[in-house]
Amino acid sequence: MARGTTSSPDAAALLSLEGPIDVATVFREHGPFVHRVLGRLGVHSADVDDAFQEVFVVVHRRLPDFDPDASVRPWVYGICVRVANRYRRRRGASREVASEEASEPIHPTTPIDSITAKQAREVLNVILDEIDHDKRVVYVLHELEELSIPEVAQSLGCPVPTAYSRLRAARAAVADAIRRYRLREGI
Amino acid sequence: MSRDPQDPNVRSVGASSDDELILALRRAVRTDLPSATKMGQLAERLGPMMVTSSAAATPPWRWIGVIALASVFAVGAVSLRRHADDRDVGAPAAQGQASPLQNVGPSGSSLQNPSAADVPPTRDERREVPPPVVSIDSLPTASAVPPRARAVVEPTCAGEIELVERADAALRTGDPRRALELTREHAQRCAEGTLVQERERIAIEALAQLGRTSEVRARARSFEKRFPSSPHVWRIRSLAEREPE
């Protein structure tokens, strides 16, 4: 799968953009993804709207300096990562998210293709809360938000090999976390 | 659940491998996005930034300059047109050309367009023009036109950006006292700076983190009065309301 290129839901629209990018355009093209990724990055559900607003305040402030030839998506995600970090620190331990949002586990007899988005979101939050935050970020950006690894590296301001090595570690950590989760919940 | 869990062809969660489960979870959240209603609410919160989309990306003080300059161009262009009309009555007027006003652009090219260039602005002729119009000498030259709206914001106070960035960094690294000190320094050094709103936002956040409720509220009220359309208003208001916790 070609990640972060025209396969992403917003990329095609972005590629066709003409003229300067403004806040409304970023909101229209990326807003839903910004809101979603903040939760996935461990921002407490009660803080997601505030964090969302803060992301766009930063976008608004930084947009005049944004290179019009650069890709908007990793830039916006990079802002999301930094804002999410700030909110997580304010809330303290990231486990607070899991403890608040975890709910009924999925029943073992549920057909695997019938898992609802809500169930999946809750389980993923529990799993992601168990792994190291740096790994979580890479996992979320690449595996869930489907950014390419160079885009992930650009978002995080780290070298591409570092992003790759974090991804490998993140996948292993997620595999361990899902194993523990299943043992715990009996599924 | 539309599928029958007893169907042997249907893989259940309990029977799936860890990898299959992870893939299924990822598939399930792939299109999990906030509703249009939710996005509408969020757009409302961003109000001041979203009202005039392209204008929002440009600091307001720049637009004041741009509008003022555009007004000068407009008056100047009208003056030139009137001047030309007075002189060239009966002559074919600027064949196929748009109004000089339509040619006024951010690059100031209207001053060099053919309709304007066709009018030699000699001093003697200008004396014949009625006094209310603006003289061409008062119009800025192309080189005096301000940079494009997307140019980097130039602070009015040396080191202002660094100072505000340091305050913001102190806040982000959990040192609200230091952040507050730096905002005080900014207030002293850059009282009329271009990043006053930023400074106030940081100061209010720092006060909130320090639990100085009454100061948060007072400062938030003052901020809202002073900058009612600031993109920070919502955040600051929420801090002032949340503080009692």
**Helix amount of chain A:** 55-70%
Radius of gyration of chain A: 17 Å
Radius of gyration of chain B over all CA atoms, rounded: 30 Å
Structural class assignment of chain B: mainly alpha
Oligomeric state of the chains present here: heterodimer
Beta-strand percentage range of chain A: under 5%
Q: Unreliable runs of chain A, pLDDT <50, ≥5 residues?
A: 1-18
For the sheet with most strands of chain B, the description reads: none
Q: Which spans of chain B of ≥5 residues are poorly predicted at pLDDT below 50? A: 52-66, 83-132, 134-153
Order of helices and strands of chain B: HHHHHHHHHHHH
Distance between termini of chain A?
Answer: 30 Å
**Tertiary shape of chain B:** elongated
**Count of beta strands of chain B:** 0
Q: Please state the structural category of chain A.
A: mainly alpha
Relative helix content of chain B: 40-55%
Count every helix of chain A, treating DSSP H or I runs of 4 or more residues as helices.
9
State the major sheet of chain A: none
For the largest interface, the chains and their residue counts are: A-B, 53 and 56 residues
Output the number of helix runs of chain B: 12
Write the layout of secondary structure elements.
The complex is a heterodimer of chains A (187) and B (245).
Chain A: H1 11-15, H2 23-40, H3 48-62, H4 72-91, H5 95-101, H6 117-129, H7 133-144, H8 149-156, H9 160-185
Helix pairs in contact in A: 2-3, 2-4, 3-4, 4-8, 5-6, 7-9, 8-9
Chain B: H1 18-28, H2 36-45, H3 47-50, H4 53-56, H5 60-87, H6 114-117, H7 123-128, H8 160-172, H9 176-189, H10 196-209, H11 213-226, H12 233-242
